[in-house]
Amino acid sequence: MTAAPQPPVAAKPPGQEAFHSYPWWSPRFWHGMPLGVWLGLVGENGGRVHPSKLGLVATISAAAAFNSVAAPLSEARFRRRLRTPPVTPPPLFILGHWRSGTTLLHELMMLDPRFCCPSTYQCFAPSHFLLTEDVLTRLLGWMMPAKRPMDNVAAGWSRPQEDEFALANLGAPSPYRRMAFPATSSSEPVALDVTKLPPAELDRWKETLRRFLARLAVRDARRPVLKSPPHTARLGVLAEMFPEARFLHVVRDPFVVFPSTKRLWISLDEVQGLQVSKGETLDHYVFACFDEMYAAFERDRTAVGPDRLHELRYEDLVADPVGALATAYERLGLGDFDAVRPALEDQARSMKRYRTNTYRHEPEVVAEVARRWRPFIDRYGYDVPAC
């Protein structure tokens, strides 16, 4: 289900955000890495951890040791079922830039009982959730905060989550690795458009995704709905890997997306990072990620027919979620929409009370967004705001 509607929140300029409190003992996604992946990540960054983060390093190291024991036990316990996992309907991928409404769309799709998705626990413990999920989510429920640190969206072990976190935890190339070391990581996106990876690395990325989906199928054989903003840059690779997959792409006003994405990275660097970053390169990073993501998306979209790729605007989704999704179901052949219509109508009524964050438009940022993202602005019919 989607998060309960919240009162409006006035956003402050970047660098002055009052993020939701995230206790030191709450899980970070690095806690899902096995020891080899964790030590490799630390080694890549020369072990340059801020002294204030040493306690977090200790808890992650302990969790990594546990993961390294639990993973082979899980593989042994489920070896036969993983060798021939259930055949599931082809996946539905939700695409879109960060802060474009992908989380809202993901949770709306989860109102359909014919679909399933990876949960937060499954993405934070991707190597052994088959063995440990039922027990540890009950024991560790108190550790998960009620809300995400960057917005008003509910959090919890059972909530829908991005499979990108699972891929990063399993050691696949991922742009999310920069969150651990924001001060020393590249200011350019890494492993966003995976066609830029060396062939062996690309093959490893594909195999990691397939293995994770096999584990999900053992847990739940319904049609998987996968949401990960980085997948927007991987449309061609995913369409080739899953020839019957469907893609649902959501876009949002880029003059809102830019400040909201910057705020997201500031929050994640603060909560997930093992360094203290001043964010000097964040403007460049947000622009570079968007540029690479939509260059790849535009390159690959011509190879995916309209019966496999459907696009909608966030603003239209919020205004009429039932109508927007009815069209998506019809265009993508997702099944009988009437089966989920009542649940969506109930959710649509609750969404009328929801107000999103507002952002102050800075003239120099508006000018740069208008210059660099003009093809996107024109394609999806957005206006340049007056400053």
Layout of helices and strands:
Elements: H1 35-44, H2 54-77, H3 79-83, E1 92-95, H4 102-109, E2 115-116, H5 120-124, H6 129-139, H7 163-169, H8 199-219, E3 223-227, H9 235-241, E4 246-251, H10 254-272, H11 282-301, E5 309-313, H12 314-319, H13 321-332, H14 341-351, H15 363-372, H16 374-380
Parallel strand pairs: 1-3, 1-4, 2-3, 4-5
Helix pairs in contact: 1-2, 2-6, 10-11
Summed up, the helix count is 16
% residues in beta strands: 5-15%
Spell out the helices and strands N to C. HHHEHEHHHHEHEHHEHHHHH
Report the span from N to C terminus: 37 Å
CATH class division: Alpha Beta
Count of the separate structural domains: 1
Shape: globular
> Structural class, please?
mainly alpha
**Can you tell me the residue ranges where pLDDT is under 50 for at least 5 consecutive residues?**
1-20
Q: What's the CATH architecture?
A: 3-Layer(aba) Sandwich
* Main sheet specs: 5 strands, parallel
> What Rg, in angstroms, do the CA atoms define?
20 Å
Arrangement of strands in the largest sheet: 2-3-1-4-5
By oligomeric state, this entry counts as single chain
CATH H-tier superfamily: P-loop containing nucleotide triphosphate hydrolases
Q: Care to count the β-strands?
A: 5
What do we call the CATH topology? Answer: Rossmann fold
Mean pLDDT: 89
